[in-house]
């Protein structure tokens, strides 16, 4: 008796040129859909989170403004402080400048301060950036001291909210924390 052996055929899907097998294209479409869903999901369904203080003291830092004047956080702080890391070459940072200005104008009379840390190569570069937007809040040039205190933000724009003691209350990367600022301002007013 002869052992069973399957028939050999010359057909192989991998040898056909110019065609895509259905399972591979379906897998590709599924992966693309998954990546889009992961990217868009937080914006479609924002999660209401309880405010949790991070409790890191970050009050001992200074920076230089466009005129070369040094500013220490403990001299310029308010009840609530938004420290923003951004750059002129970052399109998301540039597009958020109006939101930062708007929230500053809304709460500045309630002792809300904004300190913008410009990730620029020089004071001249920061000066061009500041002149382009003319912010009402303080803009400082990045330095090693600031980057050390804020653990060199991994991406920009980055937002850090500090209380009047310099304790870190909230941090985020990418999106502007407008709802968090409003929530914190209400808590500060109580």
CATH superfamily of the largest domain: Glutaredoxin
Percent of residues in beta strands? 15-25%
Residue share in helix: 25-40%
Q: Evaluate the radius of gyration.
A: 26 Å
Sequence of strands across the biggest β-sheet? 1-8-7-4-5-6
Biggest beta sheet attributes: 6 strands, mixed
Terminal-residue CA separation? 93 Å
The oligomeric state is single chain
What is the H-and-E element order?
HEEEHEHEHEHEEH
| CATH fold assignment of the largest domain | Glutaredoxin
Which structural category fits the helices and strands?
alpha/beta
Number of domains: 2
* CATH C-level of the largest domain: Alpha Beta
Unreliable residue stretches? 47-53
Identify the overall geometry. globular
Q: How many H/I helical runs?
A: 6
Average pLDDT confidence is: 81
Q: What would your notes on this structure say?
A:
This protein is an alpha/beta fold and 190 residues long. It has two domains: 20-44; 56-189, Glutaredoxin (3-Layer(aba) Sandwich). It has helices at 22-44, 73-76, 91-107, 123-133, 144-149, 178-189, and strands spanning 56-57, 62-64, 70-72, 80-86, 112-118, 138-141, 158-163, 167-173. The strands form two sheets. Strands 1-8-7-4-5-6 form a six-stranded mixed beta sheet. The longest helix is centred in the N-terminal third of the chain and has 23 residues, at 22-44. The radius of gyration is 26 Å and the shape is globular. The N and C termini lie far apart (93 Å). Residues 47-53 have low confidence and may be disordered.
């Amino acid at each position: 008796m002869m052992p069973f052996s399957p028939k050999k055929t010359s057909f192989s899907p991998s040898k056909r040129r110019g065609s895509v097998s259905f399972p591979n294209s379906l897998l590709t479409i599924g992966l693309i859909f998954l990546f889009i869903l992961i990217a868009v999901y937080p914006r479609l369904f924002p999660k209401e989170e309880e405010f949790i203080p991070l409790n890191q003291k970050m009050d001992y830092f200074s920076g230089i403004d466009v005129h070369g004047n040094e500013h220490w956080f403990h001299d310029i702080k308010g009840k609530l402080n938004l420290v923003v890391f951004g750059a002129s070459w970052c399109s998301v940072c540039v597009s958020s400048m109006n939101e930062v200005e708007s929230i500053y104008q809304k709460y500045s009379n309630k002792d809300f301060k904004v300190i913008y840390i410009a990730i620029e190569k020089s004071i001249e570069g920061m000066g061009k950036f500041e002149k382009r937007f003319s912010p009402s809040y303080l803009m400082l040039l990045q330095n090693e001291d600031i980057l050390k205190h804020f653990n060199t933000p991994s991406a920009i724009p980055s937002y850090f909210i500090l209380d009047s003691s310099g304790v870190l209350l909230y941090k985020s990367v990418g999106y502007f924390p407008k709802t968090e600022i409003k929530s914190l301002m209400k808590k500060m007013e109580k």
